[in-house]
Amino acid sequence: MATLSNNPVTARAHTNIALIKYWGKKDDTLIIPYTSSLSLTLDQFYTDTTVQFDASRSTDQLIIDNQISSEQPLHRVSNFLDIVRRKAQINSPAIVNSHNHVPTAAGLASSASAFAALAAAASKAAGLNLTLSELSRLARRGSGSACRSIFGGFAEWQRGEDDLTSYAMPLKAAALLEDIRVVALTVERGPKAISSRQGMHLSVTTSPYYPTWVKTCQTDLTQLKLAIEKNNFAKFGKISELNAMRMHALTLSADPDFTYFNGQTLTIMNLVKQLRHNGVACYYTIDAGPNVKVLCQKASVAKVVDTFSQLLGKQNVIVAKPGPGIQYL
């Protein structure tokens, strides 16, 4: 049995951007994916979460950005805390206080940072002393992509076959990490109409191209890891952009079809291609939302920022560097 901490524990986790996408679960309960994936953790977007277990309480309480949370988010967090409680062999309810420094449910991986921070804070507050691999496995149970936010820089989520074998691990890539920048473009801040979970389920169950996606993803992952190893930014960017479009092709071929893009998303995609045609090495990637992330090198940041600040306004253009893994505050 773990030794329960009487003190609150605060952890910070940063969002990650998937370069080889995770899109679809073969086990919805354990969140085991059909494909492995690879991401980059970003320094500008993060979640701070404080957890304190309190035996005198009757129920869990969730506070997000100073607002007591509604029933649905609380239910999801309580289910996750139940996993922690079972591991620690405790029964105490908890107070969870979370602050998001990233728009929620807009395709900027807020759930990844949220559940990575929750996993770290809750496990330590419950008296568990988990390794990073164990913490990654735990975070996965809250949100699949959260398993990658345990680590800084590049992280590969190995799909595995069960709870024990599905977790993320860091990649060594010092040269490319020094030079890469991600310009995050926000075109919409509100929650998306179709959640990632809904979108994945529709794509897996109705797109006739899903089996091909699974095969292609493995090839893309192998090629991207090689590009990282060789410090080949052009190849890195091309594969990342292509894999993103292959993922979104699944949404367009689902029944009913749907898309996370809006008009400005398409405008940005075309502008990135124009910049590239004019000699600026940059590529886009898009998760489950309309917001776009532009991958570029330090030398191209000013041009990319200037181009999209004119289109979207400076407040919607943020330059991110590779970010750190889990931190305890």
Automatic annotation (TrEMBL):
One of its GO terms (molecular function) is diphosphomevalonate decarboxylase activity. Its EC number is 4.1.1.33. It holds the Pfam family MDD_C. Keywords: ATP-binding, Lipid biosynthesis, Lipid metabolism, Lyase, Nucleotide-binding. Residues 183-315 form the Mvd1 C-terminal domain. The keyword Nucleotide-binding applies. It is an enzyme of class 4 (lyase). The keyword Lipid metabolism applies. It comes from the Bacteria. SUPFAM superfamilies: GHMP Kinase, C-terminal domain (SSF55060), Ribosomal protein S5 domain 2-like (SSF54211). Residues 13-168 form the Diphosphomevalonate decarboxylase-like N-terminal domain. InterPro entries: GHMP_kinase_C_sf, Mev_decarb, Mev_diP_decarb, MVD-like_N, Mvd1_C, Ribosomal_Su5_D2-typ_SF, Ribsml_uS5_D2-typ_fold_subgr. Belongs to the diphosphomevalonate decarboxylase family. PANTHER family: DIPHOSPHOMEVALONATE DECARBOXYLASE (PTHR10977:SF3). This is diphosphomevalonate decarboxylase.
